[in-house]
Write a structure and sequence with these properties.
By secondary structure, the chain is mainly alpha-helical. Helices cover 73% and strands 0% of the residues. Helix 2 (18-30) packs antiparallel against helix 3 (34-44), helix 4 (60-72) runs antiparallel to helix 5 and helix 7 (104-115) packs antiparallel against helix 8. It is globular, with a radius of gyration of 15 Å.
Length: 136
């Protein structure tokens, strides 16, 4: 919880710093503060809160965090909407064509892990992470 308090000050000082906000939001998820994580991410990326949220290279990493938070807050419809849009972006042929870029497999693994409602989905996510780590 102390690390979350440290990041709260950073979030207040640097409200537009994507990496810092995402890190703070991930810590909030770890310490069971999903509402705080969702709030920070929506303030950083307000476009993700809309029903027609466009997921792009610039916000795909950020999209997974509020979706995960919303799942924990019993906002399943919002979480699934954002996860479907994120999956559609990641699975798009042009994105897949450039999938050799560093971090692509880890992004896909995070998405599949969050959206995995089954043991099979979780196993697939672990395999993606392993392949990303050992192919780097």
């Amino acid at each position: 919880m102390e690390s979350l308090h440290a990041f709260e000050r950073i979030v207040q000082q640097y409200p537009d710093e994507d990496y810092l906000i995402r890190t703070a939001a991930q810590i909030a998820l770890i310490v069971d503060q999903p509402a705080r994580a969702a709030d920070w991410m929506v303030k950083l990326r307000p476009e993700l809160a809309g029903a027609d949220a466009a997921v792009t290279l610039l916000n795909c990493e950020s999209a997974i965090i509020p979706a995960s938070a919303w799942q924990r807050m019993n906002r399943q419809q919002d979480a699934q909407r954002l996860l479907r849009r994120t999956a559609a972006w990641i699975d798009h042929p042009r994105v897949r064509q450039g999938s050799s870029q560093p971090g692509y497999s880890l992004r896909e693994a995070r998405l599949r892990g969050v959206s995995a409602g089954s043991a099979a989905g979780a196993v697939r996510a672990r395999r993606l992470v392993s392949s990303a780590i050992f192919s780097s």
